[in-house]
Amino acid sequence: MKLSKLNHKFLLLNLLVITILVGCKSDGEEIEQPEKIYYDQAQARMESGNYFGAIEALEAIDNRYPFGKYAEQAQVELVYAHFMNSETEAAHAAAEKFIRLHPRHPNIDYAYFMKGISSYTRDRDLLIRYTNTDISNRDISGAKESFAELTEFITRFPDSQYIPYAKQRNVYLRNMIAKNELVAADYYLTIDAHVGAIRRANYVIENIPNSSENFRALKILEVSYAKLGYNELLDDVRKVIKTNYPNRELEEISNDESWSWNFLNRSKPKNSDKD
Known about the structure:
The protein is mainly alpha-helical. The protein is built from 12 helices and no strands. The protein has a domain at about 180-255.
């Protein structure tokens, strides 16, 4: 009799546990969707500007169908979706992952391009863009990295459709880097540290050619050579100024003239998959 009651209680306990497990599974389990549905979902969400939702759908493809028909396309579109969602570090990481996994993919040029674009986006901020804030006197290590990565892209893929944008971006970055060097040179002038000013100005002229700041660098050299009594060098730099910049006053060239973020809103990677 006691054994029968014990068995009855044990049976009820088992039924209760099974019921709880089944209930938890039916409530919490996510329904598996076909790969194509996830991909179409991602496209629709990107079209509507829901990049967070697009990332979820693209990551579902990457995680659940790593060898599927849309896997590679989803991985490259993750770069774009992360970037448009202002997740630039994630975009850069996604681009590096795609380059590592698919070095011969038709969209490999896009991955290299977006890797460079994602390295420095501080000037994308609306407040900076519309208040003409000068960001050349801030930390621009990211700008230097971006310049190097875009230069690599331009060298590797000279026929890419993204080349015009990369070149425009590099003009902007080159000018910013040159301006940053001359911020220090200007400071050295104020404290009569003319050797330091000369070093910075020469760096711009020798290592950042064709920037918007070449004339300004030459004028810094002119002032410092005159202060230090380097008459021969002073004569040389004045000849260079007269030859290359006749009758020109010192001008500030706006970096905004050479770059716009607007094209990225429509610059998705091309779809290399066919239905």
